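Q: I'm writing a short explainer about DNA integrity scanning protein DisA nucleotide-binding domain protein for a general audience and would like to include a description of its predicted shape. Could you first generate the structure from this sequence?
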Amino acid sequence: MRDGHSYPRELVAFIYARWRDEAFLDRVCPKAEQGSLQLPERGVLEQVISTCYQASLLREEERPVMFRLIIRDSYLFAAQEGPPTGMHRLIFSRTRPFNEYELHRLAPAADFYRTLIGIFIDPALGAQIWGLLHSGTRWMHAVYGGRKTSPPMPPSLVVYVTGPGQISVCLGDEIIASLNGGQINCPSLDVFNSGWMTKSLAPLNDETFALHRKARERAERPWASLDPEFGSKIGQQAIRRIISVIRNSNHGGLLVYLPAEMADEIMEQNPYLTLKYQFLEFDSRQRFLSLTLRIMNTLAEINGGAADEGRMVGWLEYVNSKNENIALLDEAIFDVAHFIAALSAVDGAVVITKRQELLGFGGVISGDLDSVGMVAHALDTEGGQCESVLSEGVGTRHRAAYRLCQRLHQAIAIVISQDETVQIVRWHNGSVTYWDQVPTGVPGF
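A: Of course. Here's the predicted structure. Afterward I'll give you a sentence or two in plain language.
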């Protein structure tokens, strides 16, 4: 049996193995910068991870110890910058010893969502704490979904500690590996960037673009051309936010996305599921679509000058927009996402069409559907590489999702467990297939 002291060594061994993986380095860092990337000596890195692990087991007034830590010399950060567009460097008048007790004392001041503890490697003394690095909270928008951009984390090792024995190690913004519940995991690629997910959201994108073109034709002044994938991007961000809110609620949930043409059938008696709480077919059920259309129209209108330049606008212009109407619409669309997430607190599935039309909640998937003995575990975003696994050992939500996707090949089910793990399930290449959102211990990842 492994003891707690072995986990940091195993995590470091895993990190060194990933460092030798050229495909991984190519994904997280441009080739031109890879030559300057160096891991600390193995013994030093083990000391850092072990100290973080020991600090995670301490308590701060009955609260778990949470902090972020970056291994990077203080002089590499600009002294004049700060949030929301930069990092605010604050150097202690003298360095502090790097041990679990010092981390325990600093953690309350280094708010997890806003600040990192900065350390450097002294050739004689090993790791030392040089001060604090204020990042602001915009980095969380990449996790929870949202349009605000954050300054990229520099290509240095960043350690996240979020609870007893819960550690994630990143290179900049990219997760290398995580330790959670004694298990070391490597996060999967982002499923939301897959071709099949974009295709699944195509009905919403196509419909909103058709409506957008009609509005553009009626406009009195020129509108900018929009990126054809802009609508899908908004849809992806909203789904991210829904998942994140459910994960942080600690009660779990099940989201079921169905083809838009099945809406009427699902609202009546059918062999697939019973929807306990149904919403009437009024405009309010389609609020997400209407908000997406308003965002598209507003963005095209306020960037009308780009029409003369022949330039296309899209996600970059959206996230950088200072327009008040865009800000209000952005807030509105994520209020809808939070509302949908709250519905998952009731037992059963929240049922939505792929055009983001909210049909209802409390959905009970029929027990008469055939059970699923074997499922495919996808090892890449497109499901090109899979391994067959038994469906035993999963919860009721998972088994229900497997049965539904086996019967309805166009359905997508997202299962969020109470332990914050996430599975995305669909019928793929002749079998029920799931993609793991690997738990990293970082809230919302």
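A: For your explainer, you could say: The chain has 15 helices and 21 strands.
Q: Perfect, that's easy to follow.
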